[in-house]
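User: Show me a protein chain along with its predicted structure.
Assistant: Here is one chain, sequence first, then structure tokens.
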Amino acid sequence: MNPDDKALFLDAMEDVKPLKACSGETHWNKSRTLRPRQHLDALQLDNFLTTGYLDIIPPGEPLAFKREGVQTGVLDKLRQGKYPRQANLNLLRQPVEQCRQQLYAFILQAKRDGLRNLLIIHGRGREVESHANIVRSYVARWLTEFDDVQAYCSAQPHHGGTGACYVALRKSAQAKLDNRERHAARRAQ
């Protein structure tokens, strides 16, 4: 790399903050961790995520999905990154089958832990047929196969842009109960 290229690169990257240990790892905020490996291996037997024919999503097209009954305002707020991300999954530079297994285990663990808002970093290739764009297209399909995924959309640029997506999970029964109690206490005041 010549000195001019290095200077241009350093100028362009001036305000970028590095991600901490992001290669193929799952990050849970509030010190959450995945189950021990032997439990995850047993979960893979039930993995229902499909790997057949795939409609590839063009690299520049943002991801967006919401289930029927989910308010548009929820998707808008998700798209703006206004919900706190409770856990992250990084699928960069991994084989499709490994991404499938990790996403399956990640969503199940998030559901068990009562999490609602996730960030999945899947990457985005420049070419339609690039590996990163194939993983991105599979992630878009797989997320719709989970009944607990209420909505997802491409992330804000500072969280990965079209190379990542925010995911909103269905509220657990406990979270619904907590919400009712909180609102009832507020009305009683």
